[in-house]
């Protein structure tokens, strides 16, 4: 009798483990490959990072590539126009796969060898640069300089002041213009990229049950510091992510349906390589009753609120006593942090 009871308990435990692994333990089965090709993996070097050629490899060169920008100036680059350079005249670049609102870098590992991040310290802008300076914390904890919110890089193949070999590499890298946008030589590439993104948005919208032409939110999950709530999760557009008390993570249940979805929009799934500041194991994808996919945090479906009008807004917090922001540990935020 005891043996039979033990066997039943063991079987139940295995079942629970399997079901847990399908959600909070590493993502739903539909998205198991999200974590297999992070942004810095060597398999993507030829897809926009610049294949090979990380510089001479000597220590002085490496130090120069990772030196502070100091006083940044505007220089004229043949065929490109006005570009931003560091105090040594080396061209500074931005990466399309990064985000500016909120600032986040998607260039790690081998990517960061080809495109060394510029440290945040000891940087000033000359009068010709109209974009604001800032900083962003990278995955390794270091602080990187930002211009108009965009993380700033050098290119390892630029070996002399004025070089712009990184312009247009992979269709994702561009020199900075003084206003923080892509330098003029990349306008055509930018337009083509926007057209391609729009096409992809239409396809993705159709796949996920959206209207044709509907553009999905910028991909990513990030941590934002909120003065009232502490560290909360936001999407790639800086919109606060919320969970609904009437939903359920175990067993999975979606209570926000019908007219509820006019106000609370299901957050789109993201690749785990686009997750910053929250344990990747907490990020998964769940399938709604209508067959569309939704981002989940710690197995809870998450939404953004149409009443939040700008990045950082938290107007949805505590709505009806049922809607709550999510913190960097995947838990709902019900009170302000201790002073």
UniProtKB/TrEMBL annotation:
Give the originating organism: Streptomyces hiroshimensis
Renumbered to this chain, region (Disordered) spans 159-215
Q: List the lineage, top down.
A: Bacteria, Bacillati, Actinomycetota, Actinomycetes, Kitasatosporales
Signal peptide: which range, if any?
1-21
**InterPro entries assigned:** Lipoprotein_repeat (IPR005297), SCO0930-like (IPR047910)
Query: What is the protein name stated in its UniProt record?
Result: Lipoprotein
The protein's matches in PANTHER family, at most eight in alphabetical order, are given as: BLL4220 PROTEIN (PTHR39335:SF1)
Bias class Basic and acidic residues marks the residues at: 179-214
Annotated keywords: Lipoprotein, Signal
């Amino acid at each position: 009798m005891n043996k039979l009871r033990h066997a039943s308990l063991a079987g139940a435990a295995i079942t629970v483990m399997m079901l847990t692994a399908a959600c909070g333990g590493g993502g739903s089965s539909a998205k198991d490959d999200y974590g297999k090709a992070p942004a810095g993996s060597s398999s993507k070097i030829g897809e926009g990072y610049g294949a090979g050629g990380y510089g001479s490899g000597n220590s002085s060169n490496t130090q120069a590539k990772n030196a502070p920008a100091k006083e940044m100036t505007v220089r004229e680059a043949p065929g490109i126009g006005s570009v931003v350079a560091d105090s040594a005249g080396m061209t500074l670049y931005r990466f399309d796969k990064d985000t500016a609102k909120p600032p986040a870098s998607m260039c790690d590992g081998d990517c960061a060898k080809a495109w060394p991040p510029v440290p945040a310290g000891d940087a000033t802008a000359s009068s010709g640069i109209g974009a604001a300076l800032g900083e962003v914390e990278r995955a390794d904890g270091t602080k990187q300089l930002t211009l108009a919110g965009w993380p700033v890089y050098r290119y390892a193949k630029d070996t002399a002041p004025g070089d712009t070999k990184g312009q247009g590499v992979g269709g994702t890298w561009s020199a900075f213009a003084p206003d923080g946008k892509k330098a003029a030589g990349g306008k055509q590439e930018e337009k083509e990229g926007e057209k391609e993104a729009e096409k992809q948005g239409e396809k993705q919208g159709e796949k996920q049950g959206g209207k044709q032409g509907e553009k999905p939110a910028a991909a990513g999950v990030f941590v934002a510091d909120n003065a009232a709530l502490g560290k909360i999760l936001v999407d790639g557009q800086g919109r606060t992510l919320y969970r609904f008390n009437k939903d359920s993570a175990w067993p999975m249940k979606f209570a926000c349906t019908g007219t509820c979805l006019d106000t609370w929009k299901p957050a789109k799934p993201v690749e785990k390589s686009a997750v910053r500041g929250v344990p990747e194991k907490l990020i998964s994808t769940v399938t709604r009753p209508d067959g569309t996919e939704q981002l989940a945090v710690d197995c809870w479906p998450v939404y953004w609120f149409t009443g939040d009008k700008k990045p950082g807004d938290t107007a949805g917090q505590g709505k009806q006593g049922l809607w709550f922001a999510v913190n960097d540990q995947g838990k709902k935020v019900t009170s302000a942090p201790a002073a």
